[in-house]
Design a protein that fits this description.
This protein has about 350 residues and is α/β, with parallel strands linked by helices. It has 8 helices and 16 strands. The radius of gyration is 22 Å and the shape is globular.
Length: about 350
């Protein structure tokens, strides 16, 4: 294999197991200016009534006043995301909360590296949750990465406001009762809390528990993430996602491939196979080497226990790299089965074009 081609698929973060590994941080780029969020896909509820869909906005939107009851940092944010799923939320309005911060004050980092970290942390805490990601003002690279990330939902704000009624404001409990009784669906976020009828100031989890209690008192079931996906017309949750940093790159630019894999009940082997422009196949091994043919890069004899968010490929394009289209195939295959497409428990692919020219 030519060194230039090998450099394209060299994986800096490969390990011998599909363990939970956080994504790396990309270097700064000259065109990383903040840009508006992409046009988002509207969603439609199949019908009013039925199971109650609850979305939770864990922290205030940027520009809102301080809120001491919201998660103060990333660790608390991830823990609360897991609690939301366990209590009854099917969706989370994901904000790119930055590390650090303190009670009543929140820092936001809308760069690509932080979006990747927050998505990873939330998915590990709440594996099945629907991620409704806020990309307003995000870095260009973050917006492009989100567009290619099938695990992220870009729900149109206008559609969401119509379909999910916010229950903040002066009478949150009354709003909950009215919307739930009328067959609607709700979005919970800390707003004005003076009308909270109990002692102390409420948290998101207090609002969520109250909504679940009201729904049950009205014999209305709570939607699971799977049910909410069907009701909203979203694609079912896939077992494996391949998320490239770009669809086309040139010399001097960085390219990485993130993988999101759902847990498996049985032992599996993981494959990352690159088909070069000349049709030859190369595999990334668990030690980061690139070899001809099809060989596994991970072996998990006990299966994948938790959602895996991992960077499989991380490299910089060199001028000597062969130009053209590369296809990267990912697959999870039963441990004792041969590596054939028909044996795959899950599969995904990404296509990347290496072009000529200087870095943008």
């Amino acid at each position: 294999m030519r060194p230039a081609a090998a450099g394209f698929i060299a994986a800096a973060l490969c390990a011998a197991s599909f363990a939970d590994v956080g994504p790396g941080e990309p270097p700064p780029r000259s065109h990383a200016a903040r840009v508006p969020a992409p046009a988002e896909t509207p969603v439609r509820i199949a019908a009013r009534g039925g199971p109650l869909i609850i979305e939770v906005a864990l922290i205030p939107e940027p520009g809102s006043g301080p809120c001491g009851e919201a998660p103060a940092g990333q660790r608390e944010y991830f823990e609360e995301a897991g609690d939301c799923l366990r209590i009854g939320a099917s969706m989370i309005r994901l904000q790119p909360i930055a590390p650090g911060g303190g009670p009543g004050g929140h820092r936001y980092d809308r760069g690509l590296a932080n979006y990747r970290e927050v998505v990873r942390g939330v998915l590990q805490a709440a594996p099945a949750i629907i991620l409704d990601v806020d990309l307003d003002g995000a870095a260009h690279e973050a917006v492009e990465w989100a567009r290619r990330n099938g695990r992220i939902e870009l729900c149109a704000p206008r559609g969401r406001r119509t379909l999910l009624t916010p229950v903040g404001g002066g009478s949150p409990i009354d709003t909950m009762r009215r919307v739930i009784a009328g067959g609607g669906h709700i979005r919970i976020g800390l707003r004005e809390t003076r009308a909270w009828p109990y002692r102390g100031r409420p948290t998101n989890l207090d609002y969520l528990r109250q909504a679940v209690s009201i729904a049950r008192s009205m014999n209305r079931p709570i939607a699971t993430p799977e049910q909410a996906r069907r009701m909203l017309g979203l694609k079912p949750l896939a077992p494996l996602y391949a998320v490239p940093s770009a669809e086309s790159v040139v010399a001097g630019e960085r390219l990485f491939l993130d993988v999101v894999a759902q847990p498996t009940a049985s032992a599996v082997k993981g494959y990352a196979v690159v088909v070069a422009p000349d049709g030859k196949k190369y595999s990334v091994t668990g030690k980061g080497r690139v070899v001809p043919g099809v060989v596994p890069f991970s072996v998990d004899p006990e299966g994948i226990r938790h959602v895996c968010c991992r960077t499989v490929i991380d490299t910089t394009v060199t001028p000597a790299m062969p130009g053209g289209g590369y296809t990267i195939y990912l697959a999870l295959v039963p441990l004792r089965s041969p590596a054939r497409a028909g044996n795959a428990l899950a599969a995904a692919k990404a296509e990347v074009t290496v072009g000529r020219g200087a870095a943008r």
